[in-house]
Amino acid sequence: MPLLCARRVSFAYRDRQVLEDVSFVLDAGEVIGLVGPNGSGKTTLLRCLDRILDPEGAVFLEGREMCSMNRTEIARAVAYVPQNGGVSGSATVFETVLMGRRPHLRWSVSEEDKQKVSEALSLLGIGDFASRRVDRLSGGERQRVLIARAIAQDARILLLDEPTSALDVRNQIEVMDLLRRLAEERRLAVVAAIHDLNLAARYCHRLLILKEGLVLGWGTPSSLLSGEMVRAAYSIEASVKDEMGVPYVVPLRPSNNDDPVKIE
Amino acid sequence: MITDTGRQEYARLTEKRALFITSLILILIALAGVAVTLGSADLSVADSYLAVLAGLFPDAVDLPDRMIESNAVGIVWGWRLHRVLFAIAAGFGLAIAGSVMQGVLRNPLASPFTLGIASAASCGASVAIILGAGFLSGYLVVGNAFLFAMLAAGAIYGMARLRGMGSETMILAGIALMYLFSAVTSLLQYLGNSEKVQAVVFWMFGSLDKSSWPKLAIVTVVVAAAVPPLLWRAWDLNALAEGDETAKSLGVPVERSMAGFMLAASLVTAVIICFTGTIGFIGLVAPHITRMVIGTDHRTLLPASGLVGAVLLLGADCLARTLIPGTIIPVGIMTAFLGIPFFLYLFMRRRDA
């Protein structure tokens, strides 16, 4: 049984349709990259998958329809890392990551909770500034804190909205590598909205390409990423090379051909 | 091994919080003893505690003759103790309500003042004093102040529901209401005669002069009923402080929680300020002072802010009664004189650090 199954998920903000009939399945051990231009519905899809938004269609968590679950049950199964933010000013790193334990604890903090926080901090390599205030961290460090909080949440599905956007190249690789290891070693499922196609191609098992709320493509990076697909999604000309079995996209120029490209 | 530093630091922070709360309780007990001695009849701190105990356990406490002759028990229980306890209950409740509002709305300026609740109470009191109109005959001022305050809270909630519950919506709705109620109060003052306007102004200063055992009982019951559920949901407040989206993803039913928190905080505020007048300052500053000392975990922030609020209000009342002999300065003014320098000191010291 897949960990997560989205069936014909649609969402509209008032009269503006943002997602339409998005369907896919997510298995344990898998990293899925959500790619597509700005405004294509990536963030909205992540919010629908965590039921922060209430979409049409159905989302199943291990076979159970999400709308029959309460918020705490969802939070035990799904962790969400929003883009740029979601941390309060003056809390320490340890306390912020401890917040990830909220769906599991009642009032007091157990040794197990603290252990989970320590592990998450250690995994993200931020253990040595656990006592620093979050508002005194750099953007990249803060991003790691947010990911650590999601890991401390002990959920089997991680949803991340542009987890690498605030990071330098080395940190981008480290974080994506960590997400992939977590998925494979702990049998988690990861869905990450990513702008960098090459990062997505290298670390994701499959890609879901969105454009204007519709699924433009769904498959492995090497089966999906081609010059035509990149043109269809982003309206740019690009050369796609093979780099040790992984597609490598070199953007060339804006496309002059605005005709929609038919993708089979 | 590296991450053990985080756990050790957290353990140290937990100890610091427990120590802070214990110290505040001790300070409050000592201050209450001093507060009971204040007044025309001369009683020492020890006499005050003895008189309190004699009232509680008349058969067990052997009072010295001089205390029996001076009717110390009667003075303490009849005149002084309810005022002291009222200051504690009111300071505790206002500060907790302020903490909750600042936590839910993620805004350091959120308080009963900035959300229009205090202005609504003033407006209600003004209607009662100047127009003589109100809902509860016999308790016109108190009844109006309470109902107008709850009306404002209801209006904020209603507007937020219509526009989608969010901290910005609530704050903007609150500020709009504050100006509206202030305008109505100003209009009433403009139209009213000088004697009544003076009464309104005095009410708005905030004072503990009208405390009594029945009023203390009402405030205590409401605060005692509201605080345990607030404390029980402290993790939700912690999560809400990180944003609605994050709170939802951490399992908090955001809209329902926000409504519950705001209702409880408004009720506590309304029931206190309808008896005291507007002492809004405590609700703004006590949470800040506490946060600067022990951080943002609402499990300890709520009780500790309550205790800071109680110490501030009781301390301010003591000073208000003794600073100018023969004159009692309204406690609402005194809390600002006492609390703001302390707050600024902490604020500047923290900046330097």
Automatic annotation (TrEMBL), chain A:
InterPro entries, per the entry: AAA+_ATPase, ABC_transporter-like_ATP-bd, ABC_transporter-like_CS, P-loop_NTPase
Species of origin: Methanoculleus chikugoensis
Domain ABC transporter: 4-237
UniProt function note: Required for corrinoid utilization. Probably part of the ABC transporter complex BtuCDF involved in cobalamin (vitamin B12) import. Probably responsible for energy coupling to the transport system.
Keyword flag Ribonucleoprotein: no
Name of the protein in question: Cobalamin import ATP-binding protein BtuD
One Pfam entry name: ABC_tran
Designated gene of the protein: fhuC_1
Reactions catalysed according to its record: an R-cob(III)alamin(out) + ATP + H2O = an R-cob(III)alamin(in) + ADP + phosphate + H(+)
Keyword vocabulary terms for this entry: ATP-binding, Hydrolase, Nucleotide-binding, Translocase, Transport
CDD domains (UniProt xref): ABC_Iron-Siderophores_B12_Hemin (cd03214)
Entry's Gene Ontology molecular function annotations: ABC-type vitamin B12 transporter activity; ATP binding; ATP hydrolysis activity
Stored SMART domains: AAA
Enzyme class per UniProt: translocase
Entry's EC annotation: 7.6.2.8
Automatic annotation (TrEMBL), chain B:
Membrane topology per record: Multi-pass membrane protein
Keyword check for Disulfide bond: no
BP GO annotations: siderophore-iron import into cell
Keywords: Cell membrane, Membrane, Transmembrane, Transmembrane helix, Transport
Coiled coil residues, start to end: none
GO molecular function: transmembrane transporter activity
Location in or out of the cell: Cell membrane
Membrane-spanning residues: 18-41, 113-133, 139-159, 171-192, 212-232, 261-289, 301-320, 327-348
A GO cellular-component term linked to this record: plasma membrane
Alphabetical list of Gene3D superfamilies matching this protein: ABC transporter involved in vitamin B12 uptake, BtuC
One Pfam family from the record: FecCD
Recorded superkingdom: Archaea
InterPro entries: ABC_BtuC-like (IPR037294), ABC_transptr_permease_BtuC (IPR000522)
SUBUNIT field: The complex is composed of two ATP-binding proteins (BtuD), two transmembrane proteins (BtuC) and a solute-binding protein (BtuF).
Biological role: Required for corrinoid utilization. Probably part of the ABC transporter complex BtuCDF involved in cobalamin (vitamin B12) import. Probably involved in the translocation of the substrate across the membrane.
Entry's family note: Belongs to the binding-protein-dependent transport system permease family. FecCD subfamily.
Protein's name in the database: Cobalamin import system permease protein BtuC
Annotated source species: Methanoculleus chikugoensis
